[in-house]
Amino acid sequence: MKDNVKGCLKLSGFVAVLAVVILVAVGVFGKFGSASGIKLGLDLAGGVSITYEAVKDDVSQEEMADTVYKMQQRADNYSTESSVVKEGDRRIVIDIPGVTDSNRILEELGKAGSIQFVPVEGNISGSEGEYTLNYTVDELYEKGQVVIDGSDIRTASAKNYNDTIGVQHVVVLELNEEGKGKFSEATGANIGKQIAIVYDGKVISAPYVQNQISDGTAQITGQKTLQEASDLASIIRIGALPLELQEVRSNVVGAKLGDEAIRTSLLAGAIGLALIIIFMICLYRIQGVAAALALVFYTAAELVLLNLLDITLTLPGVAGIILSIGMAVDANVIIFTRVKEEIATGKTVRSSIKLGFEKALSAILDGNITTIIAAVILAIFGSGTVKGFAYTLALGIILSMITALFITRFLLYALYELGFDTEKFYGKAKELKTRDYAKFAPKAYCISGGIILIGIIFMIVNKATIGNPFNYGLDFKGGTSTSVYFDGAVPSNDEISSFVAGIINDNEVDVAPVVGENAVIIKTKDLTLDQRTTLEDKFVSDYGVDQDKITNESISAAVSGEMKRDALIAVIIATVCMLIYIWIRFKDLAFGGAAVLALICDVLTVIAVYSVLKLTVGTNFIACMLTIVGYSINATIVIFDRIRENKAAASRKETVKDVVNKSITQTFSRSINTSLTTFITVFVLFILGVDTIKEFALPLMVGIVAGCYSSVCITGTLWYQMKKGAKEITEE
């Protein structure tokens, strides 16, 4: 009786906490933690679009590329999902999601002017606060009086430090290799003198040179507060561009995917969550009820934290959430499978619950930690979409791990104490017949190799027919941006998209309405002069648009070479770190090698699908690949954890092959059930979503299936092939 009361109180307390979290998420208590306060990216909710143009006429492609990259880093301070692209030969377009006040952003971003460091002596008159240049900036360049300029500066940051005088507020200036030599020479020649910082033709600071600076790192002292130091550092960063820019236009744009995409995605998420809950309850009985309540808590808490942590949510971010939901379910599946196994050995339900959590802990921790390592590396070294994906993935994994290990445990014990304390409420694992997966391994390798080979063949065919191995989207190859101003009401995004697609014979059309104006910005493939003319004529004839209110320009790829490089470096470093972690945890490099090889196999399988079906390769492609990497490594760890456990407990008669086959058989249901629950979520998204969502969901589904297949048929047997020399466990 006491246990019933105790269980009832525990469950009531949890329901009360859950109700509060849900109420916070839905916004009952205002914007604090409310899901409606989550920042959405340009693709989901729109934002500010600002166009800059280079002041000088003779601009090189290298200067433009460097400027785009630096502006991208600056824009990332406002949102990790910001987009910076080259438009035409001299223009740069910056899209910053989650904001609507273009004037505020322009003021905070600052005018992208030019910055120079100039010796005060002979070049500048006046005193502090009233300095004036004796010559124009161009004349200073001609006279050779510019020590360094924006092209020589890597970055600037504000810092505090303590010395004998007290707290000092300084700006730490970091120069590139070229600037390092120039600054060393200039500071050596001006010790005890002033070198002024000139921004947009005005002197903003004139610090004294105390000694020669030859290591490329300088400290600018004299700021009264940290804010003053931060402001100066910001101005230096803003001016540290290879090109001087001027603002051409700015406006607020609407969501690229449209309200329909958001509505259907939310509906798909709700349906997917409901189906997962039903599936878990049907399969795991009372344990499924605990998982369902924990999953509802996880979902509500995720929404609250996305708001409180000020994370911008975009379509790639949704991928990170989907993956973390899959891993939250996976942790529960691992635990529940262990509980059923313990019940099958004759232990009591309470002991089985305790042992189930204890034995599942290592697999859950190792699987989640490897994925967190990947997320942290991607957040540090990645940029743009990669960062956004990494933030949502890291948050989701940490929250899902806490939910599974603490919330689910709490609920299981509460339900047990409430009276659900017999075997019939939990189920009992059936005795499984061990299958010879090692014998099937060569066929499994051939199947995967065949799929990858088909992908390579199609890449070659695509290269010969369409000019590229993949169907690169606007994010990767650039295209044409067309602005259309309507006299009356603006048609829906879907209507304009279908209209334009029919004219240019291409389905990849991005439509973003301009908030506050009867206008849209349409981004398409690179259009010929005839196609541009035809498109303009059709807008005039079908919608009555004024010919003079249609403008178009060529735009560069949103994913620059530097961003691709950053993403690739981030993935390589993350893979190496995961390999090292697996090596240390499992005390066997073969485990890490097998995991990475299987991971590569999964990625190449999805890439094959992109080439065969000619799916659009854009920024969402990067998010998809990263999702597959995270999902694949987590599934692999569960197999390896069971191999490690069985290997330690094996008898002298058991061979390495026996242990591998036994381990894969024991984890088979977990692999299928986890993959199925994650697949359900993405499948509903594919069925209900708009075309853009479908193109995102389809390869994700393929990746989930590939990850399940590789974890069952490849990873364990691959490790076995590497350890084939040992016949008996005790002989290794």
Topology at a glance:
Blueprint: H1 2-26, H2 42-45, E1 47-54, H3 61-75, E2 83-87, E3 91-97, H4 102-109, E4 115-119, E5 124-125, E6 132-133, H5 137-142, E7 148-149, E8 153-162, E9 167-175, H6 177-189, E10 195-199, E11 202-205, E12 217-223, H7 226-239, E13 245-253, H8 258-284, H9 286-308, H10 315-344, H11 349-381, H12 385-417, H13 437-466, E14 471-472, H14 474-477, E15 479-485, H15 493-504, E16 510-515, E17 519-524, H16 529-543, E18 550-555, H17 561-586, H18 589-613, E19 616-617, H19 619-649, H20 656-688, H21 691-722
Parallel strand pairs: 14-19
Antiparallel strand pairs: 1-3, 1-13, 2-3, 4-7, 4-10, 5-6, 8-9, 9-12, 10-11, 13-16, 15-17, 15-18, 16-17
For the structure shown, list the relevant keywords:
732 residues; alpha+beta; Multidrug efflux transporter AcrB transmembrane fold; Gyrase A, domain 2; 5 domains; eight-stranded antiparallel beta sheet; four-stranded antiparallel beta sheet; 21 helices; 19 strands; disordered C terminus
Tell me about this structure:
There is one protein chain. By secondary structure, the protein is of the alpha+beta class. The chain folds into five domains: 2-38 and 257-425, Multidrug efflux transporter AcrB transmembrane fold (Up-down Bundle), CATH 1.20.1640.10; 47-104; 115-240, Gyrase A, domain 2 (2-Layer Sandwich), CATH 3.30.1360.200; 437-457 and 560-731, Multidrug efflux transporter AcrB transmembrane domain (Multidrug efflux transporter AcrB transmembrane fold), CATH 1.20.1640; 485-552, no CATH class. It is 60% helix and 14% strand. The chain has 21 helices and 19 strands. The strands form five sheets. An eight-stranded antiparallel beta sheet has the order 2-3-1-13-16-17-15-18. Strand 10 (195-199) and strand 11 form a beta hairpin. Helix 10 packs across helix 20 and helix 17 (561-586) runs antiparallel to helix 18 (589-613). The longest helix has 33 residues, at 349-381. The radius of gyration is 30 Å and the shape is globular. Mean pLDDT is 80; it is low at 726-732.
